[in-house]
Amino acid sequence: MGRANVDPLVLVGQVRQLQAEAASLAAKNERLAAGLRRAKQRLEQVDSQLEKLRQPPLSYAVCTGLFYENKQLVALEAMVGARRMRLAVHPSVKEQEINAGSQLLINSSQVVVGVSEPMNVGEAVYVSERLDSERVLVTTSSGSSKVLQLAPGLQRENLDQPLRSGDMLAAHLEADLALGLIERTGVQDLIVPDSPNISFEEIGGLADAVSAVRDAIELPFTHPQLYRSYNLSAPKGVLLYGPPGCGKTLIAKAVATSLAHARGQGDAAFFNIKGPELLDKYVGESERQIRTIFEQARRLADEQRPVVIFFDEMEALLRRRGSGISSDMESTIVPQMLAEIDGVEALNNVVIIGATNREDMLDPAVLRPGRLDVKIYIGRPDKLAAGEILAKHLTSELPIASSELARAGSRQDALQIMIGATVEALYAASHANEILEITYVNGASRKVYASELISGAYLAAVVARAKTLAIKRELAGAEGGISTSLLLEAVAQAGREQEELNASTDSEGWLRQLGERPVMVRSVKRAKH
Fold it and tell me: Do 352 and 214 have their domain in common?
């Protein structure tokens, strides 16, 4: 009924109106789609431009600081070449990748567009003092001092051990930034103290030398009050001199052990420094290593630990100044060492022991009283001393040939027989033991026997050779154990090697160890048995 009353013209008008609105909406939709297409194209163009900004060529910079606004990273401070600049940051750069010391990539517009591998190279500097958790005072290669900011990797919470005086760092000096720790094996190995466990009782054939060393070093340590009552200072150092292989290093280690036991303070710190190990081609490096060693010694001495600094082959380090037989490195090394030795007087727990077989090459300033006060000669063993040394190496725990036990009756008697026979073979003034014939200026001549070049190390080598022969014989199915015959065979082999060595080297070098100054040297050929 209602539909019959609707005017058709009205309906037609409404339809046309709806059609017009639909057409308008379609046009608007087309315009919107076109706008979206243009926006997409513009975004693609912008992305392309941004990507081009991140493409090479790019420059490198080192970050020195970060700047925030409302907790948002807005800029970086960086060293670009030799210029300190504040740079904008590309949105694609992640904030968590950046910290002081980071290596940045910047484009031609001076915008940070990336972060490269961390920078771990730079000028080598040495730590003088740690000022706080973020700063350190260093010494540069020119000798000047500078305060540097620590990169996060060098801050205390990120290190296994805190930075110490003498540590080497890689630094960017223009950026005032310390980048990383340089691990060095050379001097670091030297300044790691050993804790020897060698007693004087284990040293054979050096009773007089051991007694002199103990009097010079142990007494002031164990009876300081008595020394003070006599107004007597403990010696700062001891020089052990004599031919090589005669026990100088063993004595030094025994000193460290003895001092620790005397005070009941646990292990002693023993620095075993080889003279040539401290020599360095770079100016000032040897002196720095010497300072580092003594600084470490002082730290340990402050902990009330006995400290022994042992300089082996001392003539390589402290050669006579002005001798003209080296590169004159000693003109700076010797004064540095003298300054450190003089500084030991303020410490009660540090002993310096030097060892050399060329005492004539040492600088006189090192040997004067007040520095290396006590000089002790460690000579070659005589027959009695050789027997004592052999007894330290031929012990009852070793396998002994059953034939030796049957002949001697007991292990101890068998050892004494073997030691006695070995000593007699070594020290016999026979043609078999002749190694050199020397002639003096006045025409007199004499024979040099193998016994004059025997040392504790030589005797140990003879025993080791006999043990090797015993092992080979046992592996071959023969009688096992050490015997007199094997020891004598070892003596003969060592003698032949000594003869060959004399023939192939400068014999005067060997005679210098004996204090001889011949005008002619002739090698003696021995019969081969």
Answer: yes
Q: What range defines the domain where residue 342 resides?
A: 200-377
Per-residue pLDDT tens for 22-73? 888 888 888 888 888 888 888 877 776 666 655 667 888 888 888 888 777 7
β-strands 520-523, 434-439 pairing: antiparallel
How far does CA 270 lie from the centroid of its chain? 14
For residues 81 and 155, membership in a common domain is answered with no
**Both 208 and 293 in a single domain?**
yes
Determine the Cα–Cα distance for residues 512 and 445; give it in Å rounded to an integer: 16
Q: What is the pLDDT of residue 1?
A: 47
- Residue 431 pLDDT more than 60? yes
Find the angle CA(442)-CA(443)-CA(445) to the nearest 5 degrees: 115
Q: Are strands 434-439 and 374-377 parallel, antiparallel or unpaired?
A: unpaired
Q: Do the beta carbons of residue 104 and residue 116 sit within 8 Å?
A: yes
Q: Parallel, antiparallel, or unpaired: how do β-strands 59-69 and 103-106 relate?
A: antiparallel
d(CA 364, CA 378): 20
Residue 261 lies inside a defined structural domain of this protein: yes
Domain count, the chain: 4
> E-strand spans in 28-150?
59-69, 72-80, 83-89, 103-106, 111-115, 123-130, 135-139, 145-150
DSSP type of residue 324: S
Q: Which helix (H) or strand (E) holds 13?
A: helix 8-53
For 363, counting Cβ atoms within 10 Å of its Cβ (0-12 exposed, 13-18 middle, 19+ buried), the class is buried
- Answer yes or no: do 387 and 367 share one domain: no
Instruction: Map residue 81 onto helix, strand or coil.
Output: coil
Tell whether 7 is covered by a domain: no
Q: What element of type H or E holds 172?
A: strand 168-172
Same domain, 218 and 351: yes
Query: Based on the domain organization, do 282 and 353 belong to the same domain?
Result: yes
